[in-house]
Design brief:
Helices cover about 70% and strands about 0% of the residues. The protein has one domain. α1 packs across α5 and α4 packs antiparallel against α5. With about 100 residues, the protein is an all-alpha fold. The protein is built from five helices and no strands. The longest helix has 19 residues.
Length: about 100
């Protein structure tokens, strides 16, 4: 547990991880209110994944999060935030995600 906490702290000291987390939290917050309006929610998720891909680069966990967000009623779960946090804990010192 300590290693995860240490890895998360180290990763979040870099601007790209802070931006990614900010985008994820904002998207999940907006998405929570848009659960009853799927077309707008899809646009928010599409923009979110494009921004996260730009900030973090391609990663399969981002694609899985996009698939989960497409499932009705799961969009209220903070998928983007959790995926970014998990990816940040797996950050290697070289800056590459494992």
């Amino acid at each position: 547990m300590m290693q995860i906490t240490r890895g998360l702290k180290a990763a979040l000291q870099t601007p790209r991880w802070r931006w990614a987390l900010l985008v994820a939290v904002v998207s999940d917050s907006i998405g929570f209110g848009l659960g009853l309006i799927p077309p707008i929610q899809w646009v928010v998720d599409a923009v979110t994944v494009l921004v996260l891909l730009r900030v973090l680069g391609f990663s399969w966990p981002l694609m899985v999060a996009l698939a989960v967000e497409a499932i009705p009623f799961l969009e209220v779960f903070p998928t983007w935030t959790l995926v970014v946090l998990v990816m940040a804990t797996r950050e290697r010192p070289s800056g590459q995600v494992s």
